[in-house]
Amino acid sequence: MTQLEQAPGQVPRRGLENRAEVVVDLDAIAANTAALRERVARPLMAVVKADGYGHGLLPAARAVLAGGADALGVAVLEEALALRAAGVTVPVLAWLNGPGEDYAAALAADVEVSVNAEWGLAEVVAAARGTGRTARVHLSTDTGLSREGATPADWPGLVAAAARAQADGEVAVVGLWSHLAYADAPTHPTIAAQVRVFEEATTLARDAGLTDARRHLANSAATIALPNTWFDMVRPGVALYGLDPLGGEPAQSGLRPAMTVQARVILTKRVPAGVGVSYGHTYQPARETTLALVPVGYADGVPRAAGNRAPVLAAGAQRPIAGRVCMDQFVLDVGDDPIAPGDPVVLWGPGAAGEPTAQQWADAVDTIHYELVTQVGGRFRRRYVGTAGVR
Questions:
Q1: What is the SS3 assignment for 364?
Q2: Smallest Cα–Cα separation from 22: which of 294, 380, 385, 390?
Q3: How far from 86 is each of 58, 109, 163, 303, CA to CA, in Å?
Q4: With helix as H, strand as E and coil as C, how does 142-166 read?
Q5: How far apart are CA 346 and CA 353, in angstroms?
Q6: Judging by DSSP bridges, how do beta strands 311-314 and 259-264 pair with one another?
Q7: The architecture CATH gives domain 71-232
Q8: Per-residue confidence (pLDDT) for residue 391, from 0 to 100
Q9: Mean of the per-residue pLDDT values for the chain?
Q10: CA torsion, points 3, 7, 10, 14, in degrees to nearest 10?
């Protein structure tokens, strides 16, 4: 937990609250998880990597478990070990592993690990022999993303080696998985091709005796839009946090955004028409107006590209940021509307109260909402609302 983060139930620190905060709705995370779990009617691995997509690793993990998640997925081993240290006992998979990983620590904490090459399997087997523990592994196959996963040429060798290690009691292959390249475009022809390659790869593995392994392919977009990819388990991430992986607004998918990013004005001033605003004077008001200073900037994860583009709710209306976003602050032009130091502004949130959504910001700065929610931080204080998963 960072210095500026507030745990559920902790008394707020007023100075930080008055400046800027990221508010996370734990009940929304739990509700989204429950809705997806009900939709697929099969086990769900909730992805909480990257500090719970910027929502907080442990609070997000507890919220998805409260919503019915069966297992958790993270990228790196350190994330999995942090969950175990906090008392999380459900299955946890760490899949982004390289040479020299501390597999002994993973085995001691009962963390499942992904393997995508024979040399990686050899390292896991060495750890199993050294600790006397059976390693629980998922084999990753590259079905067309050309990222992690064994290629079709290397897959038979990996499967054969894993089958031998399982027969020797050194590993238990509990998962077979891959990742889609175009799940956010449900009609893209690559999807059928990847599903076909995945089915061929998993059939080969099962023919080799790896019959207890769960097959999982579906990310958030596929969990929502592609039932033919659900197999034995789904693996959603960003949808758990209420963001539509298909690029629409959350309400279209029945999701509740869990994050609200807000701050408070610290200075207002009346300025004449034509005055230059912020670095480079890329904005000049056409008439006399009121400017409001907001004390967050690109050091806090507000994209510099948001200048003159991204909307902020202030004084009852959405207004684009005026001029360039600076390291620590940005400016809003509120015209003649009343605003004063201490008044709230909202960068993005669920959208139900007129505030912009993360998708609006993503569209404005030509990125994806994944990037926005995982980058926001810095001097923002994180505050939790709701009770899901709170002990």
A1: helix
A2: 380
A3: 8, 12, 33, 32
A4: CCCCCCCCECCCCHHHHHHHHHHHH
A5: 10
A6: unpaired
A7: Alpha-Beta Barrel (3.20)
A8: 75
A9: 94
A10: 50
Q: What is the three-class DSSP state of 189?
A: helix
Which helix H or strand E contains 85, and what residues bound it?
helix 77-85
Superfamily of domain 259-385: Lyase, Ornithine Decarboxylase; Chain A, domain 1 (2.40.37.10)
How open is the CA angle 250-320-238, to the nearest 5 degrees? 25
- Going 24 to 30 to 36 to 39, the CA torsion angle's sign is negative
d(CA 175, CA 66): 24
- pTM, two decimal places: 0.93
Residue 205 token pair: 């593995």
Per DSSP, the three-state class of 73 is strand
CA triplet 235, 193, 166: central angle to 5 degrees? 55
How do the residues of the chain divide into helix, strand and coil, expressed in percent and rounded to 5? 35, 20, 45
Burial 364-383 (b: 16+ CB within 10 A, else e): bbeebbbbbbbbbbbbbbbb
The per-residue pLDDT for range 31-76, each reduced to its tens digit, is: 999 999 999 999 999 999 999 999 999 999 999 999 999 999 999 9
What is the three-state SS of 263-320? EECCEEEEECCCCCECHHHCECCCCCEEEEEECCCHHHCCCHHHCCCCEEEECCEEEE
Active site residues: 49, 279
For the chain, domain boundaries: 71-232, 259-385
Reduce the secondary structure of 2-26 to three states and give it as a string. Answer: CCCECCCCCCCCHHHHHHEEEEEEH
Backbone CA torsion sign across 216, 217, 223, 228:
negative
Beta strands across the sheet bearing 45-47:
45-47, 71-74, 92-94, 112-115, 135-140, 171-177, 214-216
H or E, element range at 72 = strand 71-74
Number of H helices and number of E strands within the chain?
A: 12, 16
CA–CA separation, 38 and 161 (whole Å): 37
Q: Looking at residue 170, what DSSP letter applies?
A: S
